[in-house]
């Protein structure tokens, strides 16, 4: 079992390598592989599969088996039952939208590293006290966005973030310029109209375009 130091290091490596973490909601089971293949073709090979639909768990299980070269995380993990389910499905990391003591403690005792959501100094202190050093800032834009991250960098110099929620091609570069941002997350490359039309090429193009912002 990894200690918190090792989990923080693993999250840093997963996120900084990913650069962009797509937040994925699977509408139909048949979309799992083509949607994730389209993201991978566009350069996004680290995925956050949310439990927002009934296909989330199936997707994690299938991707681990059928796409072993992708890094598959679970998102929208809200309670202990969901945490256990994604661990069993083979998730390689876990993302939560917010933090409770119960979930943070479960994350410490889990074999899978957890990136907890935080939107305030109090959330960060709760996680910090338990050894967490990497967080998802959620919902990033409405929680102060770039200005909040700059302000957090003073008291929380050791912490690094994956801002998610309202991140788009328009503000991506502002986030990436911050030293305490390790990657950004979002769903803009999975426009619902492309998904319903199964227009996978547009998904791939949107990923490539966004990655180009990294220079
Ligand atoms: C999330 O839970 O991380 C968000 O749904 C992603 O945010 P976005 O849809 O605004 O990109």
From TrEMBL:
The gene is eda-1. NCBIfam families: eda (TIGR01182), PRK05718.1 (NF004325). It holds the Pfam family Aldolase. It is an enzyme of class 4 (lyase). It catalyses: 2-dehydro-3-deoxy-6-phospho-D-gluconate = D-glyceraldehyde 3-phosphate + pyruvate. It comes from the Bacteria. It comes from Pseudomonas matsuisoli. Homotrimer. CDD domains: KDPG_aldolase. Pathway: Carbohydrate acid metabolism; 2-dehydro-3-deoxy-D-gluconate degradation; D-glyceraldehyde 3-phosphate and pyruvate from 2-dehydro-3-deoxy-D-gluconate: step 2/2. Its EC number is 4.1.2.14. This is 2-dehydro-3-deoxy-phosphogluconate aldolase. Keywords: Carbohydrate metabolism, Lyase, Schiff base. InterPro entries: Aldlse_KDPG_KHG, Aldolase_TIM, KDPG/KHG_AS_1, KDPG/KHG_AS_2. One of its GO terms (molecular function) is 2-dehydro-3-deoxy-phosphogluconate aldolase activity. Belongs to the KHG/KDPG aldolase family.
